[in-house]
Amino acid sequence: MAILKEKHTKSQATSLPPSPIPTYLLPNSSSNLSFIDMASTRKSFIFIFTALINRTHESFLFSYSFSSINALILLFRLLAVVISQAFTGTYGVNYGRIADNIPQPESVVTLMKASKIMNTRIFDADHEVLKAFKGSGIEIMIGLGNEFLTDISINEDRAMNWVKENVEPFVPGTRIVGIAVGNEILGGGNQELWEVLLPAVKNVHNALVRLNLADKVKVSSPHSAAVFQISYPPSAGEFKESVLPYMKPLLDFFSQIKSPFYINTYPFLAYISDPEHIDLNYALFKKNPGVYDQKTKLHYDNMFEAQIDASYAALEKAGFEKMEVIVSETGWASHGDANEAAATLTNARTYNMNLRKRLLKKKGTPYRPKMVVKAYVFAMFNENLKPGPTSERNFGLFKADGSVSYSIGFTGLVASSATSVFSLKLMYAISAALVLIVSL
């Protein structure tokens, strides 16, 4: 089967509320090596080694008689593990590629690592992208496009061939952790796809099982707000009656295989749909009166958490109160048309900076305080070939040349920043290795 072509659009929100790291465990000083204490370096190495065993649950055979070369190899392997786990597990970025002017995948990997983005999602299974991510430690969710669902749903062999072509050859070097089967199917305009979604999901999962990959690669299917009949107040959240006959069997299967519920949540779309009745500060995580849910007696000071809890309420009503909710898309456009006045650079920076701070706290929501919120931000780049309103082409955290669209703490892909940061960390790793060798 040919490599999938990316296809992705967003849906408008359907119900609106009223107004109301760990850092790298490497030296962080540029001091001369002569000032590094050898004993403390060895102790630091032992600490890192022990901590990594505890965190990764891997077993290493350690001997005091190993050679200096083996020590160097081991150290670099350990440092690679540290780098791959520098991301907290709550923040990811959608890597859309509907553009003809964005950096090559290899440069994107460098950019993500420099910015400590260790989770990403693509909307297809492009082989060049998957090759570029090999050895990066970045976890990636790939997509099986809507246009392939019917074929995959009626033929188990087609599903097997797809997995053999687009997943099996790349793991474990490329850390493929999920397959999004379709995007925003239920509640969408093509009801024929509603019928084939679950069979397609099952066939892909069964192929993973047969290839012994199901424990590493989870199957899912992200939804838009179109699946909800109502989402305000959060406790009133429920699925549309027309969607339920398809949603409940899908959720039942996801519950069996322990896959989460993925929702595309856009306070931006909600706000521009009804700016007269929605407080902009509420949508942007800024100080505001907030919203009080009379049923649960819970207070919400931002729309993002309210939308997530509306998903939890809908799942609970459908009988899946233990299912985790993960945000597969959220973001704010930095430029838009005349009727998208909120699409400004200032608002985009405010939303994405506050969202990032919120996610890095590793907290739950008011309704599910123990379920840590996780989200993939949309999107990595401004995509100049996307159809639709101007905002669709301006959700990027980074511009086409790899520089930042606005500052929220990331490093752009330019010689004076990303390259130097990467080189500096490499220098630190080599320095630490040399000190270790000398001290053995």
UniProtKB/TrEMBL annotation:
One of its GO terms (biological process) is carbohydrate metabolic process. SUPFAM superfamilies: (Trans)glycosidases. Keywords: Glycosidase, Hydrolase, Membrane, Signal, Transmembrane, Transmembrane helix. It catalyses: Hydrolysis of (1->3)-beta-D-glucosidic linkages in (1->3)-beta-D-glucans. Its EC number is 3.2.1.39. The keyword Membrane applies. It holds the Pfam family Glyco_hydro_17. GO terms for molecular function: glucan endo-1,3-beta-D-glucosidase activity. The chain crosses the membrane at residues 61-83. One of its GO terms (cellular component) is plasma membrane. It comes from the Eukaryota. The keyword Transmembrane applies. Belongs to the glycosyl hydrolase 17 family. This is glucan endo-1,3-beta-D-glucosidase. The lineage of its organism: Eukaryota, Viridiplantae, Streptophyta, Embryophyta, Tracheophyta.
